[in-house]
Amino acid sequence: MTPGLGARRTLDLLNYFRTPQAIFRSSLSELAGRGVSGAAAQSIVSGCMFEEAATQHERMRQRGTELVTIQDEAYPEHLRQIFDPPVVLFAQGRLEMLGLVGIAIVGSRLATTYGKAVAERLGGDLAARGLAIVSGMARGIDTAAHRGALAAGGATIAVFGCGVDVVYPRENVALAEQISREGLVVSEFPLGSPAYPQNFPIRNRIVSGLSAGVVVVEGREYSGSTITARLALEQDREVFAVPGNITSPQSFGPHLLLKQGAQLVQCATDVLDGLPWECRKRLAAEPGGAPRAEQAQLDFGPMTPVARQLLGLLRVDQSLNLDEITEACLDASSSEVIAMLFELELAGLVRQLPGKSFVKVMGR
């Protein structure tokens, strides 16, 4: 919270003085000798931020927010190894998820129906295999990946570019609350920090740093997701990309990464096979369940002719309006079609979109 100190400078001070107490007891000349600017050094020596720190501590106590420092055992080793690890993480939720093998799923905020279906599918399948799905809870691909992990009953970590008590975008309030209960929300920014645009590129290094690899689903050629992929390469992480429609601008980013040597992803197995050996060894000890497509089939039961016709008609990458669906199903009445769509939706085989449109869930 001291103005003028970034993660690298703060870490340098900790490495030199060993404890935060020793830093605050140091003199102006000692701090200047470590490259601290005059204003930042004066702030440290005067202790002028202590009152605000006490206020933060009280807000954390009231919310049940925990602080994980880089000197704590709970601090993830993967993140500690990056060039500029955050010195502290404000955390809300299940801290044990920091110890899991993470995989980041990132992509465009303006995601297509296809992109969101892929992200949700991968999020669920990878979470079911014991991976923690890491993303930034932005609208689009991030949101879909978190939802997939939660639907599979798996682990997911949302990295905020603001305080953990500030939800951005506001449309994800319910999702943020669910992740706080069932997953984990982390941020290096103090409580109450607004979602300034410059914070998001900064937080992207944490998204990749918490992960063994980064999966880019959609994004323009020079988007935030490609920035995260570049950070992943700098951190010696694996980079994966999902191919898309060659005419869509949202495919330019993943396709550029594929040209540059990223691993192509068509299913969760492609990601698992591309992870470092030590990560695959850890995951091998995790209990696995039935693949989601098979489980959905078991939940639904025997397929009726109407169900088979609907699943053959609906697509993953393009929605169909209810009127179009009923017109195409000549052997069933509109009431039968509506009833079967409802059953298929309950079984997780079909999803309804706004405007009474439907898509098939990927992999079904």
Question: How would you describe this structure to a colleague?
Answer:
- The protein is of the alpha/beta class and 364 residues long.
- The chain has 18 helices and twelve strands.
- The strands form two sheets. It has a nine-stranded mixed sheet with strand order 1-2-6-5-4-3-7-8-9, with helices on both faces. It has a three-stranded antiparallel sheet with strand order 10-12-11.
- Strand 8, helix 12 (252-259) and strand 9 form a beta-alpha-beta unit.
Contiguous low-pLDDT stretches (5 residues minimum) are: 288-295
Total strands: the figure is 12
Query: For the residues shown, what is the average pLDDT?
Result: 90
Order of helices and strands: HHHHHEHEEHEHEHEHEHEHEHHHHEHHEE
Largest β sheet strand count, sense and barrel closure: 9 strands, mixed
By DSSP (H or I, 4+ residues per run), the number of helices equals 18
Descriptive terms for the model:
single chain, 364 residues, alpha/beta, 9-stranded mixed β-sheet, 3-stranded antiparallel β-sheet, 18 helices, 46% helix, 13% strand
